[in-house]
Write a structure and sequence with these properties.
CATH class of the largest domain: Alpha Beta
Mean pLDDT: 84
Helix content: 25-40%
Number of domains: 2
Shape: globular
CATH architecture of the largest domain: 3-Layer(aba) Sandwich
Order of helices and strands: HEEEEHEEHEHEEEEHEHEHEEEHEHHHE
Low-confidence stretches: 350-358
CATH topology of the largest domain: Rossmann fold
Structural class: alpha/beta
Oligomer: single chain
Distance between the termini: 11 Å
Number of helices: 11
Length: about 350
């Protein structure tokens, strides 16, 4: 029986999780192995949203176990849960929010808002409860990208709190919901910072695994204030392969590191253009910039997204690609990126690896 137990563990170690970059035994995801004669039952708990993946993983592991001599039947059950992470221990938690992910860019025009929206939708597509906050007071666009009708206003409670606007299955809040699209926000930095803190803390978020914040572009006072006063768990930096964008992305990474917020990695937008007629791929903005930044700063390239007319058309129509066609090639790129984000966040803390409980009935 001991030999069989060892063989089961070895079979489980034969599968490397593509997002944790290790086997499930080493990751501490195997919670129990039960051996009853020639039957084996395994319980696995993943620490990132895995609703889309778990059935396929379970089937692969079940086949691997049943290939062991002496095993006649196996059962592999996979569940997942999202645990809270917080970079600043001296800041109070936001009520009903486990993790806050700031999506930032050193400059505008790199597709940060489109990335934020599709990241939030991709996390939700894998089963997580997700909120999206549009922190770009001067140019809020999340409402439009989510297809929220102009003039939509959030419900209020106790004349103090906002209820988030539900769009495409996620909770959202934006200054655009509080003003008209023709109202310019002529505010100084401290006023903007105060307004954003109110939007975050006075919104009645409902049991979120992740709150994605679409940050304003740049690395100025607003970004620093938010980073220091909001318990951000980690950040993602969006760039394009252009040299000037990469230079600004480096500044964004340095900003987060100076305020002790982990940088999960870099998302490279517009990494290549694919011709809609012939399918030829061309790196019109440069090539390999995201990889170079990730290597230089000891972080990871979380995903590379193409310059795509389809992405632009869906965004303009208020139907982000992940919501419009979750199984399309482009949507799968966003979903792969989102799993990288969630998995990297899940391993930030040096968590104690639980003992595997093994019983022989």
């Amino acid at each position: 029986m001991t030999d069989l137990r060892v063989q089961v563990e070895q079979a489980l170690k034969g599968y490397t999780d593509p997002y944790l970059n290790t086997d499930l035994v080493s990751a501490g995801a195997v919670k129990s192995i039960e051996i009853d004669g020639a039957s084996v039952k395994v319980e696995i708990l993943l620490n990132y949203p895995s609703e889309y993946l778990k059935t396929g993983i379970a089937q692969m592991l079940q086949v691997a176990i049943e290939n062991i001599e002496g095993v006649e039947a196996s059962e592999v059950n996979i569940a997942w849960q999202v645990t809270p992470h917080k970079a600043h221990e001296n800041l109070a938690n936001i009520a009903n929010v486990k993790n806050i992910i700031a999506v930032a860019s050193g400059k505008g025009g790199v597709g940060k808002s489109t990335t934020s929206v599709n990241l939030a939708l991709a996390l939700a597509a894998d089963g997580a409860r997700v909120g999206l906050l549009d922190a770009d007071i001067y140019g809020p666009s999340v409402g439009m990208l989510l297809g929220v009708k102009d003039g939509t206003r959030p419900e209020t409670e106790q004349e103090k709190f906002f209820k988030p606007v539900i769009a495409n299955g996620i909770q959202s809040m934006s200054m655009a919901y509080l003003v008209t699209e023709n109202t310019p926000m002529v505010w100084r930095g401290p006023m903007v910072s105060g307004a954003l803190q109110q939007l975050i803390t006075q919104t009645l978020w409902d049991d979120l695994d992740y709150l994605v914040i679409d940050m304003p572009p740049g690395t100025g006072d607003i970004q620093l204030t938010l980073s220091q006063k909001i318990p951000v768990s980690a950040s993602v930096v969006v760039t394009t392969p252009q040299d000037i964008a990469l230079l600004d992305a480096k500044k964004g990474i340095e900003m987060f590191r100076k305020v002790n917020i982990p940088v999960l990695g870099v998302v490279e937008n517009m990494s290549m253009h694919i011709c809609g007629n012939c399918g030829h791929a061309e790196h019109i903005f440069g090539e390999g910039g995201g990889d170079k930044i990730a290597e230089e700063f000891g972080t990871e390239l979380l995903g590379s997204l193409p310059l795509s007319k389809y992405i632009r058309e869906q965004s303009d129509a208020g139907l982000p690609v992940v919501a419009a066609d979750a199984d399309s090639e482009v949507a799968m790129m966003y979903r792969h990126m989102a799993r990288n984000v969630a998995a990297r966040l899940s391993v930030l803390d040096n968590q104690v690896v639980p003992d595997i409980q093994i019983s022989d009935d």
